[in-house]
Design goal:
- 32% of the residues lie in helices and 21% in strands.
- It is α/β, with parallel strands linked by helices and 232 residues long.
- Strand 6 and strand 7 form a beta hairpin.
- The radius of gyration is 18 Å and the shape is globular.
């Protein structure tokens, strides 16, 4: 790992599972008889913003006590120890990579702790749980605020995608951890890295669509594998 010049790490829900964070489609997939996929959409927010915010407030309260695990810590240490170019691209919205100390970080799906005004576009981080009012309103203009995450049917932020794909094209090593490798366009990143000559290592308890492409596929949970794999 130390010999690699440019390193990109791609993480998914499996990294946070051992911090007690359920996967998006896990835990039965139901809340108050609604599917998560029926609440995390612009249409759902347009129809009933209070209901959507009740669900996100419930999720925020569940995440408030979550702490980074050994996998988050190992990746933060890798960033600090690595002398070459480094970028961590995460699909997670829980903020645990940042809490562990990762700074060269792209949260491609946003953050559950961020809120954005639908009127003026102002963004802010709000850590209060539960929220004082539902739905929250913008302190600057009074407009309705929405969660700062990417919903089904929305495009990923262009700046985040450009950073992720640019790093994938330039890296010498890509480490893909705890992701099902079925959510696009991020699932393209390892393929882009391979096409440009990078070595790809997968860490996942189960086989994924990425497994046949990876140079090495390590079976195991992220918090157990990463500290020894990375030497931390």
């Amino acid at each position: 790992m130390e010999a690699a010049g440019a390193v990109v790490v791609v993480t998914g829900a499996g990294v946070s599972a051992e911090s007690g964070v359920p996967t998006f489609r896990g835990a039965g997939g139901l809340w108050r008889s609604f599917r998560a996929e029926d609440l995390a959409t612009p249409g759902a927010f347009g129809r009933d913003p209070r209901l959507v915010w009740e669900w996100y407030d419930w999720r925020r309260q569940g995440l408030a006590t979550a702490r980074p695990n050994a996998a988050h810590d190992a990746l933060a240490r890798l960033e600090r120890a690595h002398a070459g170019s480094f970028l961590l691209v995460t699909q997670n919205v829980d903020g645990l990579h940042a809490a562990a100390g990762s700074r060269k970080l792209v949260e491609v799906h946003g953050s559950i702790w961020q809120v954005r005004c639908t009127a003026c576009g102002r963004e802010r981080y709000e850590r209060a749980v539960p929220l004082a009012t539902l739905p929250p309103t913008c302190p600057a203009c009074g407009g309705l605020e929405r969660p700062g995450v990417v919903w089904f049917g929305e495009a990923l932020p262009a700046v985040a995608l450009e950073a992720a794909f640019g790093a994938a094209r330039a890296c010498e090593l890509m480490l893909v951890v705890g992701t099902s490798a079925v959510v696009y366009p991020i699932a393209y990143l390892p393929r882009v890295a391979r096409e440009n000559g990078a070595r790809v290592i997968e860490v996942n308890p189960e086989e994924t669509p990425l497994t046949p492409l990876a140079d090495e596929s390590i079976r195991g949970r992220a918090a157990e594998v990463l500290p020894s794999l990375l030497g931390f």
